[in-house]
PP4R1 phosphatase
Amino acid sequence: DIIPQPLLDQYLSMTDPARAQTVDTEIAKHCAYSLPGVALTLGRQNWHCLKDTYETLASDVQWKVRRTLAFSIHELAVILGDQLTAADLVPIFNGFLKDLDEVRIGVLKHLYDFLKLLHADKRREYLYQLQEFVVTDNSRNWRFRYELAEQLILILELYNPNDVYDYLRHIALTLCSDKVSEVRWISFKLVGDLAILQKFYANNANALGLNFINELVVRFRHCSKWVGRQAFAFICQVGMFSLCSCFMWRQFE
């Protein structure tokens, strides 16, 4: 009753491999691009009409098709709601996480938007996988690591201080030592007042905050290389209040 059945059938037929070979090799990509709009029009109650088509597109041999879906999976999650997202989108999301970098960047750019829609227990499972984003197919793909640091600044609010200390802290310190200065700069914001330190002190996790500051001192202030000591100065600049005040307190203790 929402749209004519022949029109829907025509859309669903776009994933036919024979059609891609004889009509247009880009037809599957166009189908993937418009799928969130079709899902919104049909409504979540009619998701069953699109589910098989979505799964077919998610396993398409063309990475451009999978990349298109990866960039929009967070929008589809909003349309479908938490139950359908957990049942039908999370498995596909997990597959994208292990895909080519060209596909992974799609889920990475909207990682926060997708994770915030999941229940806390499901969301916590991804703490173990965030470390995998540090490794890319091409080590010179520094923008991938830059995007990871930007997303982590947002993602911090989704986890408790202990999870941040046990899992996200290691990633942040690795990014602060990146070979590319642009990645280091955004990572300094990640560990400073704007993110991790603020997370600890806002939740009265002062012991974790102090341990983290001590680790920054050992790792960067006493680094044998000038770039490490420079990093410590920039971290102090970004997190001036929390970091410097606690550092001075540590000196006079």
